[in-house]
Design a protein that fits this description.
By secondary structure, this protein is α+β, with helices and mostly antiparallel strands. The protein has five helices and eight strands.
Length: 197
């Protein structure tokens, strides 16, 4: 993946590195333990987070870290939406911020960088799968960047002793579904070549 560095005010968005994984693991761990954006119930350790990180970047999917004041404050990545090969030109976005970093525009900056990179790579659709319909921050962020709600799955997650909905939001990238996909989209090509059911 080509390096994407976006300076804005005092922070920088750059490709995440192996050395960022301790902080990324901590940020995600807090979201799993205390929040409802992730439907995981057990906090994954650094080894598992490293496996997930390498699975994405080794296939060419973008994975960004936002650094401010020399510290990683959040991260975002795109990955396959579903494993069937026909979905290979569609990605799902993921964004997590340190609890103290919310409300500063970091999420918007990370998602903007992710949209731009996925468009450059040749993907045609981006899907946001937002845990908890009451997650107004994430729904609002995606809406502000042009995503539209395409559906809500009711009462599909049980976490923190309550039922949670999932909101699906979608954004066309580039020419969206208006033209045939570019055959040179590397992550999509690698995705299509993977073996599996």
């Amino acid at each position: 993946m080509v390096a994407c560095i976006i300076p804005a005010m005092s922070y920088t968005i750059r490709p995440a590195k192996e050395s960022d994984l301790d902080v990324i693991t901590a940020i995600y761990g807090e979201a799993v333990e205390l929040g409802t954006a992730s439907f995981e119930l057990a906090v994954p350790d650094r080894t598992e987070m490293a496996r997930r990180y390498h699975e994405l970047v080794d296939q060419g999917y973008p994975f960004f870290a936002l650094e401010d004041g020399g510290r990683v404050r959040g991260y975002a990545y795109a990955g396959p939406y579903r494993t069937r090969p026909a979905y290979r030109f569609m990605v799902e976005d993921t964004i997590y911020l340190d609890a103290k970093a919310r409300g500063k525009g970091y999420g918007k900056a990370l998602l903007t960088a992710l949209i731009e990179e996925c468009t450059r790579l040749g993907f045609r659709q981006m899907m946001a799968v937002i845990g908890d319909a009451n997650n107004r921050g994430s729904v609002g962020l995606h809406r502000a960047l042009g995503f539209e709600i395409t559906g809500t799955m009711k009462d599909v997650g049980w976490k923190h002793s309550k039922w949670l909905d999932v909101v699906l939001m979608q954004l066309p990238l580039g020419q969206g579904g208006a033209t045939a996909p570019d055959k040179d989209c590397l992550p999509a090509r690698m995705f299509a070549l993977r073996k599996g059911p």
